[in-house]
Amino acid sequence: MSLRNLSPPLVTLAGVATVAGLPALDAILSTTSLPILKCINAAAFVLNVGAVSVPGRLDGQQDEEMRKGELNPTKPDASNSTASTVYGRNRSRTLVDPSGWAFAIWGPIYIGETSFVAYQLLSSNADAVIPGIAAPFAAANILQSLWCASFRPSYLGDGMKKYISAATILGIGVTISMNAPVYGFTIAWALSACADGMTKRQPAHSEKDEKILSTAAKVQSKLCWAGSLACGATALYTALV
User: Fold this and answer.
1) 76 burial class (0-12, 13-18, 19+ CB within 10 angstroms)?
2) What is d(CA 30, CA 132) in angstroms, rounded to the nearest whole number?
3) Among 40, 63, 50, which Cα is nearest to 4's?
4) Residue 74 predicted with pLDDT over 60
């Protein structure tokens, strides 16, 4: 079965099972031999990379149209494609669309994950920590793969299925928030991108509804900047203490 054809109930069930089963998985892997743990880490990461490489996600469509100049939030109905429908000016009024540079963080993330997987396979220096991080690492990669399956046009219909991608991102957070400063820094980055995106999407029209929207966007932007500073400061304190 293709990743893009996975049904919402199946993706939901897999996500819930991954998060709920994390404690049991951690207990099992903590007593598993190092060679097997290293293979599990590598396999989970390969699954993640494979899922990310499958085309058709909403962010991929948006990026492609923006590069072609076909998607411009300031020009409604610039294109009739799915990406424009999702990310066009009206959709931007959700006030949570981040700036494009938000997604640049995936580069460092995948460089770090690739480096970890290669290092643990080629060196014994990481053997002491592998039993404690194998379960969260594998679960995070599984949830990332499920997010890739759910962040697609077919999940934008009515009902709860449109929230599945957000739920899988929450699951990723649950698996990596074990006193890890990098988690706080990642959230700080995301909130900064959202704040910047809201600033760029504040309407220039003077109609009453537009003024209300502009005021709301300014308030949300300030809250995001405050949240970003709080997350960044907390992560830095955790890293240094």
Assistant:
1) exposed
2) 6
3) 50
4) no
For residue 180, pLDDT beyond 70? no
DSSP 8-state code for residue 129: T
CA distance 75 to 88: 8
Residue 75, SS3? Answer: coil
Burial of 206 (0-12, 13-18, 19+ CB in 10 A): exposed
Q: How far apart are the first and last CA of the chain?
A: 47
Query: Cα(121)–Cα(114) distance, rounded to whole angstroms?
Result: 11
Of the candidate ranges 104-118, 149-163, 166-180, 195-209, the one whose mean pLDDT is the lowest: 166-180
Measured distance CA(19)–CA(163) in Å, rounded: 16
- Between helix 130-150 and helix 164-176 the angle, nearest 10°, is 170
pLDDT band at residue 164 under the 50/70/90 scheme:
low
Asked if 61 and 155 touch (Cβ cutoff 8 Å), the reply is no
Contact (CB, 8 A) for 171 and 143: yes
- Name the token pair of 124: 């014994």
DSSP state of 98: P
